[in-house]
């Protein structure tokens, strides 16, 4: 593990004891400091008392489920990375998890190395994003106002709360205003994924940004597609 992330604090929320003990051991071996909560209520209480850098969150939990825990945590901390970990496989649960504030989603059973890579990638993204918004926390274009610290935006008609992943993509594109950015570059630098794994992810997130910030999402003026190349953010 990169030394920069040793000592990062992880809140592990999992009611399956065998799985939780194994994850706690392996995450600790990577240099992370792990706190284990056995139910949703305990997770919320721990989050209020202590500082964490990332949360690994099961959905099916006693007292409060993972969706409820995620929604509660997001009200006080819109940026902390949340990785949902669940046995559910329906796409609706994935969508609901992402809507409730999860940044990533893994289905049990999973490969330990994949989980460790995702944790590391999420911590990297958090560090980059924090450094980035400290230099410029508010950005305006057209009738849109973006607050990269609170993740609350206004598009001239309504208030929108971005997910951390949406905010990171938007920040990355704005910092490269007028430049063509390829899907491969976005997957590698925003998602920290191998560009060969999945390309529709970028397109889905670009569509969301157009829906939020374009007057006519079908004819975008800010988030332009560059045929055969990728995307470009422009203001003119």
Summary, kept brief:
The protein is α/β, with parallel strands linked by helices and 236 residues long.
Helix and strand arrangement:
Blueprint: E1 9-13, H1 17-29, E2 33-37, H2 40-49, E3 54-58, H3 66-76, E4 82-86, H4 91-99, E5 104-107, H5 112-135, E6 138-141, E7 144-147, E8 152-154, E9 159-161, H6 164-175, H7 183-191, H8 200-213, E10 223-226, E11 230-233
Helix pairs in contact: 2-3
Feature tags:
globular; alpha/beta; 236 residues; 8 helices; four-stranded antiparallel beta sheet; five-stranded parallel beta sheet
Textual characterization of the structure:
The longest helix has 24 residues, at about 110-135. The protein has helices spanning about 15-30, 40-50, 65-75, 90-100, 110-135, 165-175, 185-190, 200-215, and strands spanning about 10-15, 35, 55-60, 80-85, 105, 140, 145, 150-155, 160, 225, 230-235. The strands form three sheets. It has a five-stranded parallel sheet, sandwiched between helices. The chain has a four-stranded antiparallel sheet with strand order 6-7-8-9, with no helix packed on it. A two-stranded antiparallel ribbon has the order 10-11. It is α/β, with parallel strands linked by helices and about 240 residues long. The chain is globular.
């Amino acid at each position: 593990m990169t030394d920069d992330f040793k000592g990062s604090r992880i809140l592990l929320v999992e009611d399956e004891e065998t799985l939780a003990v194994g994850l706690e051991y392996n995450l600790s071996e990577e240099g992370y400091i792990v706190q284990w909560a056995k139910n949703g209520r305990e997770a919320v209480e721990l989050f209020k008392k202590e500082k964490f850098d990332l949360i690994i969150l099961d959905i099916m939990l006693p007292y409060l489920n993972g969706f409820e825990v995620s929604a509660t945590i997001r009200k006080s901390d819109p940026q902390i990375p949340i990785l949902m970990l669940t046995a559910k496989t329906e796409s609706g649960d994935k969508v609901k998890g992402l809507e409730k504030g999860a940044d990533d989603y893994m289905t049990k059973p999973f490969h330990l190395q994949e989980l460790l890579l995702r944790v590391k990638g999420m911590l990297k993204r958090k560090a980059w994003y924090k450094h980035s918004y400290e230099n410029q926390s508010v950005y305006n274009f057209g009738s849109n106002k973006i607050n990269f610290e609170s993740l609350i935006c206004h598009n001239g008609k309504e208030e929108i709360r971005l997910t951390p992943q949406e905010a990171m993509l938007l920040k990355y594109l704005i910092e490269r205003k007028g430049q063509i950015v390829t899907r491969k570059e976005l997957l590698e630098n925003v998602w920290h994924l191998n560009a060969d794994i999945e390309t529709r992810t970028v397109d889905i997130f670009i569509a969301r940004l157009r829906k939020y910030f374009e007057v006519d999402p079908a004819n975008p003026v800010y988030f332009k597609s560059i045929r055969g190349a990728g995307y470009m953010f422009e203001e003119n």
